[in-house]
Design brief:
The chain is mainly α and 137 residues long. The protein contains eight helices and three strands; from the N terminus they run αααβααββααα. Helix content is 47%, strand content 10%. β2 and β3 form a beta hairpin. The relative contact order is 0.09.
């Protein structure tokens, strides 16, 4: 009986074998590049990480959680993540009006990726942050 795997999906063991040959999409593109482009910049990966915490989140909550980000940069980054199809924006025309952001189905597919990145971060925490946790990146 054939496994019901998503198109292009391979196990980690299959990946370890196939990556040595070069893995490309049917159109010959690198399957990793689109996500790296979507998350490039200082804030987008941090925004996606914060969104992993919430089912839906308002702009003000993200602004509070992302120390140092400006309103302009947060708006720009959210707009780009929305254009890329990773998040969706829902506007409520109430008094007072507000906006909520949540993952699209494609964005939700990033949760295991961020889980793996989190585990890598804990695995290498001492190397990244030093013995006392004060080393800056």
């Amino acid at each position: 009986m054939a496994e019901n795997k998503p198109k292009g999906y391979m196990t980690y063991d299959e990946y370890l074998v196939n990556v040595k040959k070069g893995i490309v999409t049917k159109s010959g593109n690198c399957p990793v590049t689109p996500l790296l482009v979507m998350l490039q910049g200082r804030w987008k990966s941090q925004i996606v990480y914060e969104m992993c915490i919430y089912d839906t989140v308002r702009f003000g909550q993200l602004k509070k959680d992302l120390s140092g980000i400006t309103n302009t940069m947060l708006s720009k980054s959210l707009r780009e993540l929305e254009e890329d199809g990773l998040i969706q924006r829902k506007q409520f025309n109430e008094i007072p009006p507000h906006v909520e952001y949540s993952f699209t189905p494609m964005g939700k597919d990033l949760l295991p990726v961020f889980y793996a990145i989190m585990n890598w971060g804990f695995l290498h925490e001492q190397e990244l942050y030093g013995e006392d946790g004060n080393k800056s990146l």
